[in-house]
C-alpha cells in the first residue's frame, strides 16, 4: 500500500505530487524539494519561491522492490509487479524520490534520463491517489 499519508496531508501536497513544484532560493538560486523549510544550498529559511520544473532529470540512485519485500508492499507488488524506486536529480538541481513507470525497472538505473509523468500511486482510505512517477527517456 505504501506509507500512510492522511487525505488532508495528501491534498495539501498535490502541487508537489503532480507537478513536482520545487522551491527556488532567492538567496543562492538552489532548488529544494519539497518547497518548504530551509534551502538545501545555503540553509536560508523563508527564501524559497515555488517554481514548476521541466520534470526531466537523471537517476542518481536506484533499487527494485520485488517478491520477498516487507508486507506493506504486497498490495502494490500484486497490482504492479516489481517496483523501481529512484532518486532523481531534476535538471534544475532538486533531488526527488519516486517510482519508475512504463518500463522494466531492472533495465534502468544510475545515469539514465527520465521525465515525470502522472500515474496512479496507490489506493488508501478508499481513494485512488495519483502523483508523479518517472518514465525513462
Ligand atoms: Zn539558498
UniProtKB/TrEMBL annotation:
Q: Which InterPro entries match?
A: ChsH2_C, ChsH2_Znr, NA-bd_OB-fold, Thioester_dehydratase-like
SUPFAM superfamilies reported for this sequence: Nucleic acid-binding proteins
Highest rank taxon of the organism: Archaea
* Domain named ChsH2 rubredoxin-like zinc ribbon: residues: 17-42
**All copies of domain ChsH2 C-terminal OB-fold, residue ranges:** 50-119
**What PANTHER family does this protein's entry cite?**
BLR3430 PROTEIN
Name of the protein in question: OB-fold domain-containing protein
